[in-house]
Amino acid sequence: VAADEFYVTDFVDYSNGASHYRKYRFIFVDRQAFPYHLAIARDWLVHYWRADMDEAEWMKREEEQFLADWQATFPGAAGEAVSEAARRLDLDYAGMDCSLTADGRVLLFEANASMLTHLDDSREAYPYKHRYVPRIFDAMGAMVLRRAAAGRRD
User: Fold this and answer.
1) Edge to edge, what strands does the sheet with 106-112 contain?
2) What is the mean pLDDT of the segment spanning 45-66?
3) pLDDT of 20-31, one tens digit each?
4) Is 58 exposed, middle or buried (0-12, 13-18, 19+ CB in 10 A)?
5) Reduced to 3 states, what is the DSSP secondary structure of residue 75?
6) Rounded distance, CA 87 to CA 111, Å?
7) Measured distance CA(26)–CA(72) in Å, rounded
8) Using an 8 Å Cβ cutoff, are 53 and 39 in contact?
9) What are the DSSP E strand ranges found in the chain?
10) In a 3-state reduction of DSSP, which class is residue 24?
11) d(CA 55, CA 36)
């Protein structure tokens, strides 16, 4: 590779021995975690827009289960790690992409203040997203109203 600098890290097989990889996205609003999406793909480099979530109905069911109760997917220490990430980022709005390793640890891909949150998926193909994603918008609106009512300018 022709480059002046590059980073190398060990590959972590987060497929849990299955033929698919999973990338979970959380959105943090006022330090509270909200599940946003689950992308399931055959390749380790998972992006939601490239994951073929229409490949099989089980993928959508798994994503819906994650959105309905993320702590069932991230039980115990894994759930605590997600909540701790929200607290330590200490931002009014942020997001985190991660997965779970075979031994149940959270594998962090990225966390930042510019995670995209939208609801462009069709209601017919992804009705569950239209039930769960609006919680993020509602939490953001409620936070803004709380801050406005308290007269905060930060």
Assistant:
1) 32-41, 21-29, 93-100, 106-112
2) 90
3) 999 999 999 999
4) exposed
5) coil
6) 12
7) 14
8) yes
9) 21-29, 32-41, 93-100, 106-112
10) strand
11) 20
